[in-house]
Amino acid sequence: MKTAVTHLFFLFLFGFCFSQKDSLNLGDKYADDQVYVSVAYSQFYDQPKSVSKSNFSYSLSAGFIKDVILNKQGNFSVGAGIGYGLDFFNHELKVEEVNNNTIFSSDSSIRTNLFKSHNLEFPLELRWRTSSANNYEFWRVYTGIKFLYNLSNNFQFDDTSNLRLKYSDISSYNKLQYGLTFSAGYDEFNINIFYGLTPIFDNGKIDLEDINTKILKFGLIFYFL
Questions:
Q1: What is the dihedral of CA 204, 209, 211, 217, to 10 degrees?
Q2: Are 67 and 127 in contact (CB under 8 A)?
Q3: CA 45 to the chain's CA centroid
Q4: Is 21 part of any domain?
Q5: Is residue 8 included in any domain, yes or no?
Q6: Residue 36 has pLDDT above 80, yes or no
Q7: What is the rounded CA–CA span in Å between residue 97 and residue 172?
Q8: What is the CATH number of the domain that holds 142?
Q9: How does pLDDT run across 50-69, given as a tens digit for each residue?
Q10: Contact 225, 21 (CB under 8 A)
Q11: What whole-number distance in Å separates Cα of residue 70 and Cα of residue 126?
């Protein structure tokens, strides 16, 4: 199912990519529809006291944003889109699923502890840029909110006997998340920040402490006409 959704998404993405030129060069009033690709360094924050921050982790995403202009010059607009994202975390929170119940703990003896998730992304942005209908190289500042719908999640770790344990689609995982976004830069090259506002787990606890772990990403995002 996940593979089929991914294939349909990329067909949708490329179809819009090839049709993009039809929406440009329409005079002063124009749309700036874009394909985006991003790569980011990712971290968990608001971790429980017994768990240190995550180790080197990263996120990748790609998608399409439809531009709806707000003024004649076209330098103010709102953008709404759809995308696909992969998150990969090397972390220290031990996650297990037993009888459809998620168990959280901290175990410093774990050799490898990885978390992967595949998400549909739905960005919604307020956009400002210095472009015109005939100028494709410009400064931009985009800010907004991004909603994430989880397609699958996977937690795996190696115990002290080198036995690899793997748990997929755990019951406590928060399938719908959202966070604030900010990107700014010139032409295709832009800095990008995602500040998650929702915990990745529902009703998670460790040593009677609520698990409010959220995701912070900062990296680069590339926009293509």
A1: -170
A2: yes
A3: 15
A4: no
A5: no
A6: yes
A7: 9
A8: 2.40.160
A9: 886 667 899 999 999 998 98
A10: yes
A11: 10
Q: Is residue 7 over pLDDT 60?
A: no
Note down the domain range covering 113: 37-224
Best CA proximity match to 61, nearest among 126, 148, 129: 148
Q: Across-strand partners of 162?
A: none
Assign 195 a pLDDT band (cuts: 50, 70, 90): very high
Check residue 63 and report its DSSP letter. E
Q: Give burial (CB, 10 Å; 0-12/13-18/19+) of 211.
A: buried
SS3 173: strand
Contact in structure between 178 and 145 (CB atoms under 8 Å): yes
For residue 144, the model assigns a pLDDT of 97
pTM listed for this prediction: 0.82
How many domains are contained in the chain?
Answer: 1
The reply to whether 3 falls in a domain is no
Q: What is the rounded (10 degree) CA torsion for 95, 98, 101, 104?
A: -20
Closest CA to 175 of 125, 134, 119, 219: 119
Bridge-based pairing of strands 189-196 and 176-186 is: antiparallel
- Domain-located, residue 93: yes
The 10 Å Cβ neighbour count of residue 57 is 20
User: Tens digits of per-residue pLDDT, 75-124?
Assistant: 889 999 999 999 999 888 888 888 888 988 887 777 788 999 999 999 99
Measured CA to CA, the distance from residue 205 to residue 104 in angstroms comes to 7
Which pair of tokens denotes residue 59?
A: 């996120």
Stretch (H or E) spanning 5: helix 2-19
Amino acid at 62: A
Q: How many CA atoms lie within 13 A of 81 on its CB side?
A: 31
